[in-house]
Every structure is written in C-alpha cells, then in structure tokens.
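In this supplementary section we document a worked example of the pipeline. Step one takes a protein sequence of length 477 as its only input; no multiple sequence alignment statistics are reported here. Step two produces a three-dimensional model, which step three serialises into structure tokens for compact storage. The input and output of this example are shown verbatim.
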Amino acid sequence: MLQSRIKSFASITILLRGSNNMPNPTESQSRRSTGKTARLLCSCLVLLLMSGCASYGVIHNNPGTDVSEGKPYSLKTWAHSEKADDFVFILTFSGGGTRASAMAYGVLQELRDTPVVVEGRNERLLDQVTHISSVSGGSFTSAYYGLYGEDIFENFEDEFLRKDVEGYLTRSALNPFHWFGKKGRTERSAEYYNKILFHDATFADMMQPGRPMIVINASDLSYGVRFSFIQDYFNLLCSDIRDFPVASAVTASSAVPVVFNPVVVENFSGCPEYQPPAKVVEMAEHSEELADMLEGLQSYNDKSNRKFIHFVDGGITDNMGLRAMSDVVTVSGGPAAMINKMERKLPSNVVFLSVNASTQKRPEMDQSAKQPSMLASMNAMTDIQLHRYNSATVDQVREDLETWAAQMSTPEHNVNAYFIEVGFEQVSDPQLKLFLNKVPTSFNLTDEQVDSLIKSARDLVRADPEFQKLLSDLASQ
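The serialised model returned by step three reads:
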C-alpha cells in the first residue's frame, strides 16, 4: 500500500500545476516559489500516506426500480420538452479547471447575445440549446446553468470563476483534523461546492421548463466506462437519479484520481438486466471500442461483484464531453432508432458546439541540454496523449455527425449538420494565444485570466465559419 501511494505522488501536481502566475520571476522569487511548492507537495504526500486508505465513500443514491412516476431525468423526457422541434443543439464543455469553466461561460454569453428567427419567432440562439454535455471543469458551468438559468450571468463569476476555490481545497487537505476523519477529500470538496454553488440541489431541481438537459460525465474507475449522470445510465444501477445531489455529480466529474477519492454509488438489484439492441451487438463485432463499451455497460448487471461503483474525473475517458453524446446515439442503434424510440420528429438542424479548453504549452526542456525532471517528462507525455486523443475525438464526431445527418435525411426532409469548434488553436493573435496557453489548470485564476478567457471564447464562437454558416442558413429559412 505504501509503495502504491508513493508511485502516485506525482499526480498531486495536477491540482497544483501553474499556481505561480507572476510574469518573468526573478531567481530569488523562483527559488521561493519552488521551495513553497515542494513543502506543499511533501505535506500532501504525508496526507496521502496517513489517510489514503482510511476513508469510505458516502453513498448518496437510492434504489429506484420503477422511475415511471412523474418525469424521469432522461433523454426521452427532454425529447418531449418545449424546445423547438427544428433543432438538436448540443454544447460540449471540456475539462481544464476554472479555465474550462470560464470558456464555457463565455460561450453561453455569446449565444445569449445572438438573435435568431426560429419557426417565425424572434429568439436567442441560447434558447435553442437542447443538451449540454460536460466533464470536469466544464461541469461547474453546465450544472450551474441547468439549475439557475439566466442567474448564471449575474452570479457565477463572483461565486466561482473569481473565487480561490483551490486555496480552500488545499487548506482542507492540509488540515490535520481532516487526516483521520471518516470523510475523504472528495466528500469535503462536494460539501464545499454544495455550499458555494449548488445549495442542496438534486437532479429533480434541474428539470426546469425551457432549459437544456445537462449531461454531467464521469469515468468508472474499474472498467473505464464513460458514465453520464442521467436516468438512462442510472437504470443500470437500479437507481433514481432525481434525488441524487448535483454537487456529488460535479465532484465525480472533476475528481482527479489520487488527488481526490472517487465518488461512490451503490449498484442495486431488482431491475431488468441491460441488454444492448441486436443491431448494436452486430456493430460491435466490427468495432473493438464499441465492444469494450458494451462489455463495460453490461458489467453493471453483475450486482454481486460490482456492488459499489467508483467514479472519477470524466476527462480520463473523454476530456471533450463529445464521446459521451456519441455513445448515447451509438448504443441506441443510430440516430433514426434513437429518434423513433424518443417519439419525436426529425429535426432540420443538428448542431454540435465543442468548447475545448485544453492547452499546449511550450516545453522549457527544449531550451536546454539539461535532462528534464521526472515530473516534466510525465507532464509532457500526458499532454501529448491528451491532444492526440482530443484530435481523434473531434475527427470521429465530425465524421459521425455527417453520417447521422445523411441517415436521417429524406427526399422530403433534409437534415443540416454543423460542427462548431472553440479552442485555443483557433486564436489568430500569437501573443494572446501564448497567454491563453499559459493559463494553468487550477481553480484559482487572476481576473485578467478570467476576463481574457471569457472574451476569447465569445470571439472564437463569433468568428467560427460553421457558426456563421448556421446563422446565414437560419436567416434564409
């Protein structure tokens, strides 16, 4: 146990990376910063060694073998909502700490301020959003908007974006009174998020008229399954998500392994086993990724060996929030089968707007012949794999979107597909691009960083060619 905790020590730096944002530090400042960080890391190591095996997950989900009463928090419920039938408009918010939260917030602002005419009505483009899929840092923005709607534009900056959330989490982790308690670091974090943002809200409180469906995503630590906090997935657990705390779902979505304990839910018995559609099983014979996904989903049928499920950061299995939505369509047997199952008519427009807050930093190791440290090597390898996986995800979803639009289109009804991408790679100003890529993955940013992220996200949406094409097509319909 001790050896495994030491091997995991390097992961602590994910929480603390980039905490020193001072430009051009002097040598003495650099030494003080390095010493301070080293002491903090050592303290965290002590915490891990002393309390890493002592805490247990607090179970917040309840059994619910029949969720037919009332409206479940499900995809079918939102398919029958008052949203315009002409649109399927999906936003996806990536991970990346407060950096991701601020970019997602900027996109919401831009959509709010974009007027459109839909079915003869003067509306805002924000009102057409039907789903928001998010992971990690992006989940704070999506959940807040799902709960409070327009209030996000009044309160979210003060309550989260400009608050030193990381400072509280670090102080809590280093508090000796917490080292031997029954609650783990994750449960205390969830309590803090609940206090400052979510105020005991459950998923039942997310079911507000005119709001998009919020799909918060996490990763199943045992099987590597992308798990979405919606009833369609909670059916696998024989549980009703409507009384599950929103704060716990957001915490699971952002729970970096080792730094935070997993969020634990119970896998109850008493409901029918999950069986994928025959068409999907046939498709899985030609797709190793789909076969692995089905195997993971069917693993929840094993109630004796999978009594408790441990959820961690959604960014591990999908840092974009894109694959989660693609998975839902795939396991339904394709877009036509999904639409038939949900009993809704074919849309005219399918829009994906992807907000990608991942950064590409210039490695300092290239400026010297000095061998990079173990930490620098690990960070570089992680960044390389993350960017390659993100690129593959974008390419796959673009291809899927075009395929879905073609499959749904008929001679009498054409389905238009749009993929809008917002990320730092699209920034044209070299100095601004460098500045944004240096924003750390943390929960404590400067006002200048937050302002730049919000404005850049708005500018990038407005300048995107697919976004302009969408607006032009809507104006001519």
